Amino acid sequence: MIKIKIILLSLSFPILIVAQDLSVLYKLNKNGAETGFYRLDIYRDNSVFYESNYCENNLAVKSDLIISKQNKKSDTIYLLDKIDGASIYSQKSFLLNWKILDEKKNIAGYKSHKAEFFYKDEKWIAWFTNDLPFQDGPFIFKGLPGLILIIENENYRFELVEISKYKTFCDININNRKEISYEKYESIFKNISEKNTNLINSISNLNLDLEIDLKSTKDKVNTTNILREILYR
User: Fold this and answer.
1) Mean pLDDT for back-to-back runs of 10 residues, the chain (233 residues)
2) pLDDT the model gives residue 186
3) Residues 6, 48: contact at Cβ < 8 Å?
4) Long-range pairs for 144-152 at CB < 8 Å and ≥24 separation?
5) Domain at 4-173: CATH code
6) Strand, coil or helix: 98
7) Domain spans, the chain
8) pTM, whole model, 2 decimals?
9) Going by C-beta distance under 8 Å and a sequence separation of 6 or more, which residues neighbour residue 175?
């Protein structure tokens, strides 16, 4: 089992504390199909969300996007990513206006409460537990009075798989990352996504009997970009 320790040497970043409190593994589904597993490592002052095998085997990593959140009352989220092999980071304030509802249920042995909010005009439903007093959750989601176990909308679903503690580290040095504005970051990956889609559609229209390879390629592109897809769809 592996946990991440991010070494932040740039003064532009807040310092991440090494002492970890909890590590949570989530499964991500898109339209009912499993797309991958992601881990949320929660530290005393910060948390880090990343693809579960990020440090186990970089060759198998589908997403280079790492999300760092502050556990204090801060809406700023740091996005660590790569563009054509170049390491970059960006930051953005995400204000999540949660509405806690009366409905309750048991999830994996935890008493859970229902909540909802709208992100880019899409309603997300979350189930969180006060039994684990960490105001955090998968992806950019945080701010409820407890840990988010499940959160979903019509297309995507993050679901708890396991909760554990680790004693080993995976060091990620981001000292050489270049900062870019969130607007530029969003624009770059939107353009990349559109170009990939247009290329696949253009080849498909040539009727070259490549449907199997094209399907595999399209699935790979969609899986690789899924976190970014949710982020700026």
Assistant:
1) 43 42 91 90 85 68 78 82 83 91 95 94 95 93 95 96 69 72 86 53 48 44 69 77
2) 85
3) yes
4) 144/98, 144/100, 144/115, 146/113, 147/22, 147/24, 149/107, 149/108, 149/110, 149/112, 150/107, 150/112, 150/126, 151/124, 151/125, 151/126, 151/127, 152/124, 152/125
5) 2.50.20
6) coil
7) 4-173, 181-232
8) 0.78
9) 7, 8, 9, 10
